[in-house]
Amino acid sequence: MSVELEVRPPSPYRLPTYGGEDGVMRVERGIAHRLLHVDGCPVLVRAWEPGRQRVALRADPIDPRSVSSPSPAADAPVREAGQAELELALERMRFALGVDDDLSEFFRRFRGDPLLGPLIRRRPHLRPRRRPWPWEALAWAVVKQLIESGRAARIQRRLVGRWGLRLDDERGALRDVPTPALIAGRAPAELESMGLALKRALALRAVAGDVAAGRCDLAEKDADRRLLSVREIGPWTVQCLGLYGRGDPDSLPAGDLIYLKLV
């Protein structure tokens, strides 16, 4: 069983040409590939552009036996995805890729702006690089706290390489972001060995435990209050969650050094 659909983006669109800093999404020959786990079921999602202003997406179930689990295999997939899981995987990839975003009102409002107008005309397809699941946005925001982007990307790749479920054992196989349950079960020293500062390792482990136990629904803004009660979790981190994990365009991490430099 596979599920495939085609979307016509309401605004100028271009599929990303690279997968991102953590390496979990691959773009090869114009086709984006991503391994997702939906309610524990492994799904391979692909996206490509069959024509102008057309985006096709396809979700295929994966035999759980072909997914290699890291040690310890705390949350290895146990069943094959069904119709509901495949449709949800497509929905989350549509969200992450931003194919349904209608930016026409923004274009009309700012096309004459002396600063934004030339940028809009040159890059009308620009979108925030969102994550399929809010957990990924939160986890990577914690990793990125107070360090440069290149170093944060290396830590992300180490976490994925060490604890991410992967498709087959071959070198270069598709991997997924480690789950909250798996991160919550790691000792702080294990996370610190990936390059995280100890304070960040403790914060990542704490929020992962809340998410895994169901005490914090990251898709809801009400979760921010609980997150802000965790040491080392501040407004910047929850703003990154809002922008990249919930798709809230007003949740700008305005205290980010790169924005301060741009202003």
Description:
The mean pLDDT is 93. A five-stranded antiparallel β-sheet has the order 1-5-4-3-2, with helices on one face. The chain is α+β, with helices and mostly antiparallel strands. Helix 4 runs antiparallel to helix 8 and helix 4 (134-144) packs antiparallel against helix 10 (235-245). It is globular. A hairpin with a 2-residue loop joins strand 4 and strand 5 (54-61). The protein contains eleven helices and seven strands. It is 39% helix and 15% strand. The longest helix has 15 residues, at 83-97. It has helices at residues 83-97, 104-110, 116-122, 134-144, 149-163, 180-184, 188-192, 198-212, 223-228, 235-245, 257-262, and strands at 3-7, 25-28, 31-38, 41-51, 54-61, 67-68, 166-167.
Concise structural overview:
The protein has 263 residues and is α+β, with helices and mostly antiparallel strands. The protein has eleven helices and seven strands.
